[in-house]
Input
Amino acid sequence: MTPVAAPARSNADIDEPVRLLHTALDARINLVDTADIYAGRASEEIASSHWPTDANDRGGSPPYIVRAAEVSLCRLLAGNRSDPLRRRHYPDAVTSEPAAASDRPATARTYGYFGPAGTFTEQALRTLPGSEDGDAVLVPIDTVPLVVEAVRSGAVDFGLVPMENSIEGGVSITVDEIASGEPVTIVAEAQIRVSFALLVRPGTALADIKTVGTHGHALAQCRRWLARELPQARLVTASSTAGAAADVANGDLDASVSAPVAARTYGLQVAAERIEDNEGAVTRFILLSRPVPPPEPTGSDKSTVSAFIRDNHPGALLEILDEFAVRGIDLTRLESRPTGSGMGRYSFSIDLEGHLAEARVAEALVGLRRVCSDVRFLGSYPRADNEPPRVRYGTTDADFVLAHRWLEQLVATGRSDEPTA
Output
């Protein structure tokens, strides 16, 4: 049976789908195979409805958020026919039996990202293969934890979140979220250069600006410019740079520090460009999925793990570092995070060069598991910068194979000379 698309609704109902989306995400409703079909039909229906699709035509809440919420909510609620929220708000989106898997587009993918629209996260997502396919659905989600939860529940196929910045370092909320809870896997990464603009409503002069909003990381990267050019302005921390731009469009703020693309999205004017204090800042993003085996190694890969120390004692960190150092593995990021179980209880979030399929990486992880109370492997994936690792003498796969042959020969024959092939 062909599913019926969810009916279009009036602007008075704009906030309800957004609220229900969060409710459904929190409930972690399971999906069925028909979910992608519901999402596609809902997307077509909403796109052809009377809701405006351009920020300049909008009234009230931004309609593109409504469209994303409608599509996501239809996916979520499709999996639970008895859910009262689904029956009340999507009474027509029902079939008597699940659609066959062959009825779904084989390449259809849904990408959640830390939104709203117009963030650097969306910009980074659009650089990844598959995200710009015609049948790909990009869904902005309000917070990093909700993006991760959407991936865990199956509400989206993939989720993109910020991981670290070359100025401010790691994004703590992301590091903590993926280190605990139901496992997720990093399948790709993206890096983009970050440049900020000061966005205002048309006709606003710098002297008129009393409040400036932005995300905390953006604020840290533009603090000197803001202090010099807008000493009179009060700085307000927002959930995202795009969220701050939306607040400017709604009249809640006078200006925002945002990505330049957000000006077009929210109908704003660029009052100043390149206002970051450090040129060339780079932000790295990670693409998450539910647990899957790592892709084949490319020769330019990175792996991520969270290692939990067994107890707080002298040399605990050194024990972890030794596992990598003796195998010639370079760490590209290392930061400690409290586990929340008491003072002195820490985990270490680690990015390292190499792939799980490489002997040196595999043996390092075995050693790490031996000395730690827990190790969460978060994935091996291609590096965004395509930079190959510098593999030291004695740490190639061939070196490990030869060493193991030597040991086998020693055990079998007692001979410690060079093993034969």
Observations:
- The chain has a mean pLDDT of 77.
- The CA atoms of residues 196 and 275 lie 6 Å apart.
- Residues 197-273 form a domain with the D-Maltodextrin-Binding Protein; domain 2 fold (CATH 3.40.190.10).
- The chain has 13 helices and 15 strands.
